[in-house]
Amino acid sequence: MIVPSNDSLWRAPSAKEWAHNKEWQAYKPVNLVETSRRVFTGEFPAVPMSSFGLLTLIGALVANICARERYSPEMAPILDREYCAKMERSLQAWETLWRSHPHAEGTHSIKSDPLMSDCLSLLNSAHHHLYMGQELQILKRIAKEPECHLAVPNIPTDKKILVVIKYAATSWLADTVTGAAHRQRKAAFEFGGLGPMVAYETALIISWWLSLRQSLTLPPSASVLEGEKESLEAIDHLFQDILKELDEQCISFDGDRSDLVSRALFHYRVLLGQWVWPYTNAMNHALQAFASRLCQGEV
Q1: Which of 78-82, 182-186, 247-251 holds the top average pLDDT?
Q2: Of 37, 117, 131, 184, whose CB neighbour count within 10 A is largest?
Protein backbone atom coordinates (compact mmCIF):
# COMPACT_ATOMS: atom_id res chain seq x y z
CA MET A 1 0.00 0.00 0.00
CA ILE A 2 1.51 3.31 -1.07
CA VAL A 3 0.38 6.90 -0.63
CA PRO A 4 1.79 10.18 -1.96
CA SER A 5 4.67 11.34 0.20
CA ASN A 6 4.11 14.93 -0.83
CA ASP A 7 1.06 16.94 0.24
CA SER A 8 0.91 18.78 -3.08
CA LEU A 9 0.23 15.42 -4.72
CA TRP A 10 -2.24 14.26 -2.11
CA ARG A 11 -4.17 17.55 -2.27
CA ALA A 12 -4.04 18.15 -6.02
CA PRO A 13 -7.52 19.39 -7.06
CA SER A 14 -7.41 17.66 -10.45
CA ALA A 15 -5.72 14.81 -12.28
CA LYS A 16 -3.97 17.33 -14.52
CA GLU A 17 -2.42 19.20 -11.61
CA TRP A 18 -1.49 15.93 -9.91
CA ALA A 19 0.36 14.81 -13.05
CA HIS A 20 2.08 18.20 -13.30
CA ASN A 21 3.21 18.09 -9.67
CA LYS A 22 4.41 14.53 -10.05
CA GLU A 23 6.48 15.46 -13.09
CA TRP A 24 8.15 18.49 -11.55
CA GLN A 25 8.68 17.22 -8.02
CA ALA A 26 10.73 14.40 -6.61
CA TYR A 27 7.95 11.85 -6.25
CA LYS A 28 8.78 9.11 -3.79
CA PRO A 29 5.74 7.02 -2.87
CA VAL A 30 5.72 5.82 0.73
CA ASN A 31 5.16 2.17 1.49
CA LEU A 32 2.91 2.31 4.54
CA VAL A 33 3.47 -1.32 5.49
CA GLU A 34 7.23 -0.84 5.66
CA THR A 35 6.92 2.56 7.34
CA SER A 36 4.47 1.16 9.89
CA ARG A 37 6.87 -1.67 10.68
CA ARG A 38 9.65 0.81 11.37
CA VAL A 39 7.44 3.03 13.54
CA PHE A 40 6.20 0.02 15.51
CA THR A 41 9.80 -0.85 16.33
CA GLY A 42 10.48 2.70 17.50
CA GLU A 43 12.54 3.75 14.48
CA PHE A 44 12.23 7.16 12.88
CA PRO A 45 11.50 6.68 9.17
CA ALA A 46 13.41 9.41 7.37
CA VAL A 47 10.82 9.89 4.63
CA PRO A 48 8.49 12.82 3.90
CA MET A 49 4.94 11.87 4.81
CA SER A 50 1.63 13.43 3.84
CA SER A 51 -0.91 14.27 6.53
CA PHE A 52 -3.02 11.34 5.33
CA GLY A 53 -0.05 9.03 5.72
CA LEU A 54 0.57 10.33 9.23
CA LEU A 55 -3.08 9.79 10.12
CA THR A 56 -2.91 6.23 8.83
CA LEU A 57 0.17 5.48 10.92
CA ILE A 58 -1.15 6.89 14.20
CA GLY A 59 -4.46 5.15 13.53
CA ALA A 60 -2.62 1.84 13.33
CA LEU A 61 -0.86 2.53 16.64
CA VAL A 62 -4.10 3.43 18.42
CA ALA A 63 -5.84 0.36 16.96
CA ASN A 64 -3.03 -1.83 18.28
CA ILE A 65 -3.29 -0.35 21.79
CA CYS A 66 -7.08 -0.57 21.91
CA ALA A 67 -7.08 -4.13 20.56
CA ARG A 68 -4.62 -5.15 23.26
CA GLU A 69 -6.84 -3.47 25.82
CA ARG A 70 -10.09 -4.93 24.49
CA TYR A 71 -8.92 -8.53 24.31
CA SER A 72 -7.43 -8.50 27.78
CA PRO A 73 -9.24 -10.95 30.10
CA GLU A 74 -9.66 -8.31 32.82
CA MET A 75 -12.74 -6.10 32.90
CA ALA A 76 -10.55 -3.02 33.31
CA PRO A 77 -7.17 -4.12 31.94
CA ILE A 78 -3.75 -2.77 32.81
CA LEU A 79 -1.27 -3.07 29.97
CA ASP A 80 2.07 -4.61 30.93
CA ARG A 81 5.13 -2.40 31.30
CA GLU A 82 7.10 -4.01 28.49
CA TYR A 83 4.31 -3.40 26.01
CA CYS A 84 3.82 0.18 27.24
CA ALA A 85 7.54 0.91 26.86
CA LYS A 86 7.50 -0.48 23.32
CA MET A 87 4.47 1.56 22.31
CA GLU A 88 5.88 4.68 23.93
CA ARG A 89 8.93 4.42 21.68
CA SER A 90 6.63 3.97 18.69
CA LEU A 91 4.55 7.01 19.63
CA GLN A 92 7.69 9.10 20.08
CA ALA A 93 8.95 8.02 16.65
CA TRP A 94 5.60 8.91 15.11
CA GLU A 95 5.46 12.29 16.89
CA THR A 96 8.94 13.13 15.58
CA LEU A 97 7.72 12.30 12.09
CA TRP A 98 4.60 14.43 12.62
CA ARG A 99 6.67 17.41 13.80
CA SER A 100 8.76 17.22 10.63
CA HIS A 101 5.67 17.96 8.53
CA PRO A 102 5.59 21.57 7.23
CA HIS A 103 2.02 22.08 8.49
CA ALA A 104 2.73 20.91 12.04
CA GLU A 105 3.41 24.36 13.50
CA GLY A 106 0.03 25.77 12.50
CA THR A 107 -2.04 22.88 13.79
CA HIS A 108 -3.51 24.80 16.73
CA SER A 109 -4.51 27.79 14.63
CA ILE A 110 -7.90 28.49 13.05
CA LYS A 111 -6.48 27.73 9.59
CA SER A 112 -4.99 24.41 10.59
CA ASP A 113 -4.92 21.28 8.44
CA PRO A 114 -7.88 19.11 9.59
CA LEU A 115 -5.96 15.87 9.04
CA MET A 116 -3.03 17.12 11.09
CA SER A 117 -5.47 18.02 13.88
CA ASP A 118 -7.02 14.56 13.72
CA CYS A 119 -3.52 13.12 14.03
CA LEU A 120 -3.06 14.88 17.36
CA SER A 121 -6.47 13.71 18.53
CA LEU A 122 -5.41 10.12 17.96
CA LEU A 123 -2.05 10.73 19.63
CA ASN A 124 -3.86 11.97 22.73
CA SER A 125 -6.18 8.97 22.69
CA ALA A 126 -3.19 6.64 22.38
CA HIS A 127 -1.76 8.03 25.61
CA HIS A 128 -5.17 7.89 27.31
CA HIS A 129 -5.51 4.18 26.61
CA LEU A 130 -1.85 3.28 27.06
CA TYR A 131 -1.44 4.68 30.58
CA MET A 132 -5.00 5.24 31.81
CA GLY A 133 -7.02 2.53 30.11
CA GLN A 134 -8.32 1.07 33.35
CA GLU A 135 -9.30 4.40 34.86
CA LEU A 136 -10.79 5.66 31.60
CA GLN A 137 -13.08 2.65 31.26
CA ILE A 138 -14.40 3.23 34.78
CA LEU A 139 -14.95 6.94 34.14
CA LYS A 140 -16.85 6.16 30.94
CA ARG A 141 -18.99 3.63 32.78
CA ILE A 142 -19.82 6.19 35.48
CA ALA A 143 -20.73 8.80 32.86
CA LYS A 144 -22.85 6.37 30.85
CA GLU A 145 -24.58 4.79 33.84
CA PRO A 146 -24.82 7.44 36.58
CA GLU A 147 -26.66 5.04 38.90
CA CYS A 148 -23.86 2.48 38.92
CA HIS A 149 -22.01 1.92 42.19
CA LEU A 150 -18.51 2.33 40.81
CA ALA A 151 -16.31 4.80 42.65
CA VAL A 152 -13.95 7.20 40.97
CA PRO A 153 -10.45 5.70 40.62
CA ASN A 154 -7.67 7.00 42.83
CA ILE A 155 -4.61 8.68 41.35
CA PRO A 156 -2.48 5.88 39.87
CA THR A 157 0.93 5.24 41.38
CA ASP A 158 2.52 5.15 37.91
CA LYS A 159 4.09 8.56 37.28
CA LYS A 160 3.21 8.18 33.60
CA ILE A 161 -0.21 9.51 34.57
CA LEU A 162 1.34 12.97 34.39
CA VAL A 163 2.13 12.37 30.71
CA VAL A 164 -1.56 11.70 30.10
CA ILE A 165 -2.66 14.76 32.06
CA LYS A 166 -0.20 16.98 30.22
CA TYR A 167 -1.42 15.77 26.83
CA ALA A 168 -5.04 16.21 27.94
CA ALA A 169 -4.40 19.72 29.28
CA THR A 170 -2.54 20.66 26.10
CA SER A 171 -5.49 19.37 24.08
CA TRP A 172 -7.91 21.47 26.14
CA LEU A 173 -5.70 24.53 25.68
CA ALA A 174 -5.64 23.93 21.91
CA ASP A 175 -9.44 23.69 21.88
CA THR A 176 -9.77 26.98 23.75
CA VAL A 177 -7.20 28.74 21.55
CA THR A 178 -9.06 27.61 18.42
CA GLY A 179 -12.21 29.03 19.95
CA ALA A 180 -15.51 27.41 20.83
CA ALA A 181 -17.42 29.64 18.41
CA HIS A 182 -15.17 28.64 15.51
CA ARG A 183 -15.48 24.97 16.42
CA GLN A 184 -19.25 25.24 16.47
CA ARG A 185 -19.40 26.97 13.08
CA LYS A 186 -16.93 24.68 11.36
CA ALA A 187 -17.39 21.39 13.20
CA ALA A 188 -19.29 19.75 10.37
CA PHE A 189 -16.79 20.76 7.71
CA GLU A 190 -13.25 21.03 9.05
CA PHE A 191 -13.00 18.71 12.04
CA GLY A 192 -13.24 14.98 11.55
CA GLY A 193 -15.25 12.47 13.50
CA LEU A 194 -12.24 11.58 15.64
CA GLY A 195 -12.30 14.91 17.45
CA PRO A 196 -15.50 14.45 19.49
CA MET A 197 -14.44 11.06 20.87
CA VAL A 198 -11.10 12.38 22.08
CA ALA A 199 -12.78 15.54 23.40
CA TYR A 200 -15.08 13.30 25.44
CA GLU A 201 -12.16 11.33 26.86
CA THR A 202 -10.27 14.54 27.60
CA ALA A 203 -13.23 16.05 29.46
CA LEU A 204 -13.58 12.97 31.67
CA ILE A 205 -9.85 12.76 32.41
CA ILE A 206 -9.38 16.48 33.09
CA SER A 207 -12.42 16.75 35.38
CA TRP A 208 -11.42 13.53 37.20
CA TRP A 209 -7.87 14.78 37.71
CA LEU A 210 -8.89 18.24 38.89
CA SER A 211 -11.53 16.91 41.28
CA LEU A 212 -9.00 14.55 42.87
CA ARG A 213 -6.35 17.25 43.11
CA GLN A 214 -8.82 19.56 44.82
CA SER A 215 -9.72 16.91 47.38
CA LEU A 216 -6.18 15.62 47.91
CA THR A 217 -5.52 16.08 51.62
CA LEU A 218 -2.55 13.75 52.02
CA PRO A 219 0.72 15.32 53.20
CA PRO A 220 3.36 15.70 50.46
CA SER A 221 5.42 12.80 51.82
CA ALA A 222 2.47 10.45 51.39
CA SER A 223 1.43 11.67 47.96
CA VAL A 224 1.99 9.39 44.99
CA LEU A 225 3.01 12.51 43.11
CA GLU A 226 5.95 13.22 45.39
CA GLY A 227 9.04 14.23 43.45
CA GLU A 228 7.03 15.38 40.43
CA LYS A 229 6.89 19.05 41.37
CA GLU A 230 8.27 20.27 38.04
CA SER A 231 5.74 18.27 36.02
CA LEU A 232 2.86 19.38 38.23
CA GLU A 233 3.91 23.01 37.90
CA ALA A 234 3.99 22.69 34.10
CA ILE A 235 0.47 21.23 34.15
CA ASP A 236 -0.74 24.00 36.48
CA HIS A 237 0.66 26.60 34.06
CA LEU A 238 -1.35 24.99 31.26
CA PHE A 239 -4.51 25.28 33.33
CA GLN A 240 -3.76 28.94 34.05
CA ASP A 241 -3.41 29.58 30.31
CA ILE A 242 -6.70 27.78 29.73
CA LEU A 243 -8.50 29.94 32.29
CA LYS A 244 -7.10 33.05 30.64
CA GLU A 245 -8.31 31.93 27.21
CA LEU A 246 -11.77 31.06 28.52
CA ASP A 247 -12.09 34.44 30.23
CA GLU A 248 -10.98 36.30 27.10
CA GLN A 249 -13.61 34.51 25.00
CA CYS A 250 -16.34 35.54 27.47
CA ILE A 251 -18.03 32.15 27.27
CA SER A 252 -21.13 32.38 29.45
CA PHE A 253 -20.80 30.33 32.62
CA ASP A 254 -23.11 30.72 35.61
CA GLY A 255 -20.98 28.89 38.17
CA ASP A 256 -17.78 29.77 40.01
CA ARG A 257 -15.37 30.90 37.27
CA SER A 258 -12.40 29.65 39.31
CA ASP A 259 -13.88 26.12 39.42
CA LEU A 260 -11.91 24.40 36.67
CA VAL A 261 -13.76 21.10 37.08
CA SER A 262 -17.13 22.61 36.23
CA ARG A 263 -15.69 24.84 33.52
CA ALA A 264 -13.95 21.91 31.84
CA LEU A 265 -17.15 19.87 31.67
CA PHE A 266 -19.19 22.90 30.61
CA HIS A 267 -16.70 23.86 27.90
CA TYR A 268 -16.64 20.38 26.40
CA ARG A 269 -20.41 20.12 26.52
CA VAL A 270 -20.50 23.34 24.50
CA LEU A 271 -18.01 21.90 22.00
CA LEU A 272 -19.96 18.66 21.63
CA GLY A 273 -23.27 20.43 21.17
CA GLN A 274 -22.93 21.40 17.50
CA TRP A 275 -21.56 18.34 15.71
CA VAL A 276 -23.37 16.51 12.94
CA TRP A 277 -22.77 13.01 14.30
CA PRO A 278 -25.57 11.65 16.54
CA TYR A 279 -23.15 9.96 18.94
CA THR A 280 -21.98 13.38 20.14
CA ASN A 281 -25.41 13.93 21.69
CA ALA A 282 -24.98 10.76 23.75
CA MET A 283 -21.55 11.93 24.91
CA ASN A 284 -22.96 15.35 25.75
CA HIS A 285 -25.64 13.79 27.96
CA ALA A 286 -23.02 11.54 29.57
CA LEU A 287 -20.89 14.56 30.46
CA GLN A 288 -23.93 16.23 31.98
CA ALA A 289 -24.58 13.16 34.12
CA PHE A 290 -20.93 12.98 35.11
CA ALA A 291 -20.98 16.65 36.07
CA SER A 292 -24.02 16.06 38.27
CA ARG A 293 -22.31 13.26 40.15
CA LEU A 294 -19.22 15.38 40.66
CA CYS A 295 -21.31 18.25 42.01
CA GLN A 296 -23.08 15.88 44.39
CA GLY A 297 -19.78 14.47 45.58
CA GLU A 298 -20.93 10.94 44.74
CA VAL A 299 -17.84 9.87 42.86
Answers
A1: 78-82
A2: 131
